[in-house]
Design a protein that fits this description.
single chain; alpha/beta; Rossmann fold; 2 domains; nine-stranded mixed beta sheet; six-stranded parallel beta sheet; about 25% strand; binds nicotinamide-adenine-dinucleotide
Length: about 350
């Protein structure tokens, strides 16, 4: 059995992580850390025999843990992950893994020197529509990929759309606005759908409405090797909620709108793929369950784990694109080469 603990018991932990870990027969969540007493009470109500802590180090001292799952707001991720790695635990971190290049290197070095797995929750790779898109690309149905566009239209930040909280998304604990909240997801998806290529350049416009303390719109253009282009429009200003994508290659175009996926070939014939609809909420328990399976596999495989190495390469690219997009926007939106 792997003994795990969760640091940050908010909406995503309660709605997705607990359910996801429960699908793993060899994993037992034994402890929760959250500074807010109402959240610790919620954990006690939700998880039989759970022990709760208001202090991370106390939890790490008091428990014999194989891993820590960090699900607090972004500004706390890197410090919590470093503390857990120093205590000898494997670590799974909600996105974003970190928001500074030095921090990322410190995390990577700590995991590697202690022989521990460090992974970030890249759960959109487990959405049925993106898995299908990836499979179709792998089977050559689109030919050589040339362009993809990912749109995330939201009427407000998660939690604030539904009235369940998440106010930190507009404050310091978020470490930024929609670029940090949704950008990380679209960046690792772009890299994955482009066949694992690292991005070469990024250009961005980040905008904040008069009342918004952080950027509430991000318009992004990423160039991959071979003049492949990936675009994304992320918005908390939209009048409606939509999650869409369009990809094309030399042989076909794929359109994704919610759960609908349509492939149109060069000859003009279209194929509609019937997928079981997945809940369009902000938490996605089924995707986290598949992420939990990846993490468990990586822990069992140890330092040689290809899943963990690929995940860290995605996180490195997502961080480089986040920082590059900010810099490009500051400089007026032109293309910025990535090192
Ligand atoms: N991968 C996804 O699809 C997805 C979806 C939603 C949220 N998230 C991520 O999950 C994280 C949490 O988001 P949420 O929607 O659950 O927010 P939330 O506000 O519901 O929960 C955050 C929890 O963290 C606790 N907390 C605050 N400071 C802390 C600290 N220093 N240490 C530990 N816990 C602390 C809060 O008390 C709260 O219970 C964020 O990083 C967010 O980006 C990911």
């Amino acid at each position: 059995m792997l003994r795990g603990a969760i640091s940050g018991f908010g909406e995503v932990a309660a709605h997705a992580h607990v359910a996801g870990w429960r699908t793993r027969p060899e994993v037992n969540i034994v402890a929760i850390h959250d500074p807010i007493s109402a959240r610790r009470h919620h954990a006690i109500r939700l998880i039989p025999n759970i022990r709760v802590y208001d202090d991370l180090e106390l939890m790490l001292d008091g428990e014999r843990l194989d891993f820590v799952d960090v699900a607090s707001p972004p500004a706390y991720h890197a410090a919590a992950a470093l503390t857990a790695l120093a205590a000898g635990a494997h670590v799974l971190v909600e996105k974003p893994l970190s928001l500074a290049a030095g921090e990322f290197e410190a995390l990577r070095a700590a995991a590697s020197s202690r022989g521990r797995v460090l992974m970030c929750v890249h759960n959109w790779k487990h959405a049925a529509v993106y898995r299908l898109a990836h499979d179709l690309i792998g089977a050559g149905r689109l030919g050589e990929i040339r362009y993809l566009a990912l749109d995330r239209l939201r009427t407000a930040p998660a939690g604030m759309e539904t009235g369940t909280g998440g106010g930190w998304r507009l404050g310091e604990a978020a470490g930024g606005g929609i670029l940090v909240d949704h950008g990380w997801h679209v960046f690792y998806l772009m890299r994955w759908l482009m066949g694992g290529l690292d991005p070469a350049a990024v250009g961005a416009f980040l905008g904040a409405s008069a009342a918004a303390p952080v950027e509430d719109v991000a318009d992004l253009r990423v160039i991959f090797p071979g003049d492949r282009i990936a675009a994304a429009h992320l918005s908390w200003r939209s009048p409606v909620r939509r999650t869409r994508a369009m990809l094309y290659g030399s042989e076909g175009a794929l359109e994704i709108d919610g759960d609908r996926v349509v492939l149109t070939g060069r000859c003009g014939s279209s194929e509609d793929f019937p997928l079981t609809p997945e809940a369009d909420d902000s938490y996605h328990p089924a995707w986290f369950a598949r992420m939990a399976a990846d993490f468990e596999r990586a822990v069992l495989e140890g330092l040689e784990s290809a899943v963990a190495a690929e995940n860290l390469a995605e996180a490195r690219a997502a961080l480089a694109l986040t920082l590059g997009a900010r810099e490009s926007s500051r400089q007026g939106g032109g293309q910025l080469k990535l090192a």
